[in-house]
Amino acid sequence: MTNEMIIIEKCIEVFNVKKEEIKVVKRLMGGMSNYTYVIEISGKLYTFRIPGKNAEKFVNRTVEKHNIELVEDLGLNNKTVYFEIDSGFKIAEYIEGTPLHELEPYLFLNQAAAVLSKIHNSGKVSDYDYDPLGRLKLYEGYLAEYDFTHSERYLELKAKFLSYSNKYMDKSKLVLSHGDSQISNFVVTGNGLRLMDWEFTGNNDPYYDIACFGNNDFDHALALLPVYLRKTPTVEEYNRLYFFRAFQTLQWHNVALYKEFIGLSIDLGVDFMFVANLYLDKAEKFLGRIK
User: Fold this and answer.
1) How many angstroms separate the CA atoms of 274 and 14, rounded?
2) Is residue 235 predicted with pLDDT exceeding 90?
């Protein structure tokens, strides 16, 4: 069944409308884990998410649903109108705006800092921690199912990362965090900056979100940090940022390897083995910056 057929069939069920009242407008580009479409039903626009191959390995939909409901009153996400835990299908109201990656991120640092501060200082506590080290072990386990052995380089970088973990991983610093606050998930609207895609939300170190902002260009994260802190960062504060960015690169190294093994390099036309090695280069760079 094609994605368009899935959308039409599900919308007939959810909205109790006829096929003729459903229009698939376009696919939103940018993500490599999901297929997200803009749809129109009886003149109103929505987004419809169809998870990609084996996406459930990396996103617990029960956790995601809990967190979406938790942050609803913050007014940052688009309102979810339908969520199916088993399939991961999600329908939400469409927000008109421009993704931040299509604009100049440096012009929106104050707004981005305000959004992240609103989340981090909300006082909300999820039932679930992001648990970086546990998540890394989980992702490595997926590769073990393919009898994959990590390279010496990866193991050495991971060991160096772990040597800093006692210093920079402090449970007392955990706050509600978005978990994927890269610029492509921010949308500039007429009512300010909004933040989409709460798949990786949980209690986490707030610096994790700052590091995510530099996913495409780490200079964005370096520029955001002093705005977020409202002061010039100390060496230790920069170290903490480098530490969490290094973790992210080790994490996504494993995800890229897994996507290579399940055939997504061919399916999506993306060389995930190249991407995996690129993440190791980045991990080495960021670990080398910690003083």
Assistant:
1) 41
2) yes
